[in-house]
Amino acid sequence: MGRIDAYDKVDHDLLMNRLGKWVTDKQLLALIGKYLRAEVSIKGQREPTRCGVPQGGPLSPLLANIMLDDLDRYLESKGYRFARYADDFVISVKSLTEGERIKTEVTAYLETLKLPINTEKSQVVSSQHLCFLGFAFKGKKIVWSPKSLANFKHRIRELTGRSWGVSWAYRYEKLRQYIQGWGNYFGLSEYYRPIPLLDQWIRRRIRMCYLKQWRRIRTRIHNLMRLGVPKSAAISLGMSSKGYYRLAKTKAVQLALNNKWLESQGLVSIKDQWVKFHYS
Questions:
Q1: Are 199 and 160 in contact (CB under 8 A)?
Q2: Which E.C. number(s) belong to this protein (predicted)?
Q3: 195: which strand partners?
Q4: Which of 34, 39, 134, 139 makes an SS bond possible with 148, Cβ 3.0 to 4.6 Å?
Q5: What tens digit of pLDDT does each residue of 231-243 get?
């Protein structure tokens, strides 16, 4: 697996030369040239841009792909099995020894394009240790990587923070956007087992947020009873001194803020996203 410092190190003259082979509009070429060489502000000082393409813009990935098209053609000419996305790529070989040889070969070729390989993020590993674009392999199955799952949980914790002072409509909308986006991308994963557990965990954190909002004893009891909890159970829970996250797992809270009710409020399900991806 390799990573090229394409965005930061692209040689402007080489890139413009390649663009000139495909683009005949001189005004467009001049505009792209200005885009590449636009000055940047560093600590309040304007500095010239001598190489690389601006990151974050819609044109940058296209320009990087144009620059790396030569790499694709080189790998194809060698008969290597590979996949590349922007400046990340992976080459599949039969052994680690062959992998080291090809890594040296490809590194030398990229030097002819004035594109250095990121040595810290490029490595030769077996498939069971490979992580590419957020995915890894579990046996013969493709799954999300441990880092991808950790990032997902971190973002969910932010969106379900009990002290986040936003409206419920806004919170649910942000959760919907993130969960659907994550599910659409990582729905490719063939690892179903943790999916229902993630749904349960998200619902528990949402219930915790409601309990935090109902922090007054009377408010908590009133809302629990309004949502169908028997009076005795509502009073018992309302008077409890246990933490919000712990209370969120009690039967009374799960009865009041049940799955169907949370769905009606706008909470989307990771499980539904996964099932839709695989079986729709």
A1: no
A2: 2.7.7.49
A3: none
A4: 134
A5: 999 999 999 989 9
